Predict the structure.
Amino acid sequence: MCGIVGYIGTKNSLPILIEGLKRLEYRGYDSAGVAIINSKECKVIKTKGKVSELEKLVSAHPVESHLGIGHTRWATHGEPNTINAHPHFNKEKTLFLIHNGIIENYLSLKKGLLKEGYEFISETDTEVLTHLIDHYLKLKNSLFQAVRYALNEVEGTYGIAVIYKNEPDKIVVAKKGSPLVIGLGENENFVASDVNALITHTKQVIYLEDGEIAEIHKDSYTTKTISDETIIKEIFHVDVGIDDITKGGYPHFMLKEIMDQPESIYNSMRGRLVYDEGISKLGGLQGFEDRIINSKRIIISACGTSWHAALVGEYMIEQYAGIPVEVEYASEMRYRNPIISKEDTVIFISQSGETADTLAAMKEAKKKGALCLGICNVVGSSIARESDAGVYIHAGPEIGVASTKAFTSQIVVLVLITLMLARKRNLSLPDGQDIIKHMQKLNEKVAEILKQNEYIKDIAEKYADSKNFLYLGRGYHFPVALEGALKLKEISYIHAEGYPAAEMKHGPIALIDNNMPVVFIATKDSVYEKVVSNIQEVRARKGRILAIVNEGDTQIESMVDHVIKIPKSHNILNPILSVIPLQLIAYHIAVKKGLNVDQPRNLAKSVTVE
Ligand code: G6P
């Protein structure tokens, strides 16, 4: 979380920094700031609130400079106010630092600095690091060396960018645990916490790895390890266009991303299905297939929405490939010393590829010798780079904080993996081909559901004043119930719980009265009749029922308040279809309540702190 951007070149830096911050705002948006240096002055402008607030301040004090850094914050240490906003600076206001991550030993470092006479004006860990660099600047007389020495004392995570008045020809950046990318231009260079901030300027990028530090000039750069050894970095070309990161005429990124799904789902499977053999071909797993198939166990680890996709994966891999699967929150896995052996495969699912807990869980699993695979959306992200092998979901950039298209594409990739494993085990050719046939029709079916947007909006608005919601589903639709509830919580701030429908009688049924909306996912599958019984139980207690059913289902329609109909598909693909009305319901309720759908309070898209 937190967005970082920096510019050095021949153009005026402030508009570039503000534009970059707007593209990064999804990473955190409680305060923002910039610092610039020119031949006459150093200036820092910060404010509580969003980048648009900062932009107003910046336009009121225009200043020309060719060197600057900017930051949009998701508060960790200290409340989101102007003083705690980045950039932080030294007493003389000549050294400026922006930081993404957490300095864990900041209190002990602060103690030492206090003894030396340093004064602190903010509550942040970042200000401590700024003064520590200042301390070394006085000893080493070189910004690069001062940053390097300071970081050698730091425990925790960081992606930082630093500028200094007395060395106005450079930005020094370093990374450990938080993403940092350098963008290479003509007579200008950039830094950012992700490529979205850079792609209007350059497509040539260098990804810094943990423990690396770089000095960036307008026409050159050097990269080293934190222990001062020179390293040569590979330059990557990023394939993200401006259309991918704008709203494309929709009022919100979230709606655009929901509407993108026929295409994003197709892109996730494109070129990966071989109908004649009833299999999938995943280039990223080439050479690892046998090891995965012979795994004693598969563990899937993730956070948030990606964890819900993992649950769907568990159901399908166990059912079709017959390999035992466990699903684990990455935040739990990283600290509880799980039993993982060389014979296990651990799959890490992450849209951003940067989630701190997921990354740390992966490092833990690697240490224990397991094969670590990544399922990521962001190309070149840390999890993608550090896993042994993996599959990109190719959903395209997801900017709305609440994940939508990434979830459906993650499930597509899990189906592809299931197909690959199951066909090598005991899935027959016709059964494999049957799954493929259904996959090939998926985008049309998704488009069919999306056509009902206005109808779904009307229904959603009827429920917008509810204070609580229950989402119930069984089998493949249990994780969808969890995801539907999460979507609603995230953006509408309505309390919602997802439950396996049959568990309702062990507690949640006590909540049901005529004020409690219950969303049932009740498509025609092997547990359909059981879900119908659960619907009856809610009906008997006067709960308001909204059901997601299959086209042609009249039985449930006659029993509930509202139905949304979705096309039939293969059971392992059903979650991809049934989640779409739930995404739209959450979206329309949040819009009706006048909330900021793309940037819900307290959340961030990419959680790079633990
Ligand atoms: C945050 C986001 C969620 C996301 C989760 C995991 O909480 O708001 O939408 O599901 O992080 O992120 P990842 O990038 O690892 O999938």
Q: What stands out?
A: The CA atoms of residues 65 and 506 lie 64 Å apart.
